[in-house]
Amino acid sequence: MQNLILGYTLAIVSSIFHTLYIIPRKLSSQKPKYYTLYMSIGFVLSSILICCIYEIKGYELDLTNPLLIYAAIAGVLSMVASISLVIAIDKIGMSRSNQWKNFQGPIGALLIFFIFGEASTTKIYFLFFAIIAIFLSAMLLTIKNETEGEAFDKKGIFYALISALFYGVNALMRKYTSDANLIYEQQLYSAVFMLLTCLIYIAIKDKGMKKLSIFKVRLLIQLYS
């Protein structure tokens, strides 16, 4: 019973901090790619610090465990989700983005339910009730802002749902490493691969923008020649 209460408590704490970490976005004027870059650098540094602290306390890190491939995949998924969420916030605001992103919970729970068969601890109809509740709250908030005449880019809903999907699958990946008691190792791997994914994303995007600029210049030259 104590473990169950502790598990629920930690889940609530995790949910709170998972919501709070994105709030600085509203205070930043950085482009999404650079905001997520700085964010992932912070994740890497904090993960290294945590691993060092626990290693000093006698915890033996198992950084060569093959199961950590799931943590690496989770890092890639987390970065895609984070970038999508930041873009969604820029397009439709934080309150609406978080409502649509909340689908990550039921998505992750459904995946774990069917793949790991957690029927003994989770009733599937509760998950469907959660999906309905989240959908209604997201729709009501969206409709309310539309009726009040507040303009926003509805593409943001798509990005928020993409974020929810990738966060949900990310939860499944972390289930494998958590069951193997690779708590701190998975955090380090995920953070490192988040940073690598962000750097690749920036490189591809900047290269694409450069090619587009060159194409526009050549097109203008042809038009005026």
Report on this model:
- With 225 residues, the protein is mainly α.
- It has one domain (31-203).
- It is 80% helix and 0% strand.
- It has eight helices and no strands.
- The longest helix has 42 residues, at 183-224.
- The protein is globular and about 55 Å long.
- The mean pLDDT is 76.
Key terms:
mainly alpha; 225 residues
Short description:
This protein has eight helices and no strands.
N-to-C order of helices and strands:
HHHHHHHH
Distance between the termini: 79 Å
Number of contiguous helices: 8
Largest sheet: none
Based on CA inertia axes, which overall geometry fits?
A: globular
Low-confidence stretches: none
Question: Structural class, from secondary structure content?
Answer: mainly alpha
Chain-averaged pLDDT: 76
**Percentage of residues assigned to helices:** over 70%
Q: What Rg, in angstroms, do the CA atoms define?
A: 20 Å
Beta content: under 5%
* Count of domain modules: 1
Number of strands: 0
Task: Annotate the secondary structure layout.
Elements lengths: L1 H19 L11 H25 L11 H25 L1 H8 L2 H13 L7 H24 L7 H25 L3 H42 L1
Helix pairs in contact: 2-3, 2-8, 3-4, 3-7, 3-8, 4-6, 4-7, 5-6, 5-7
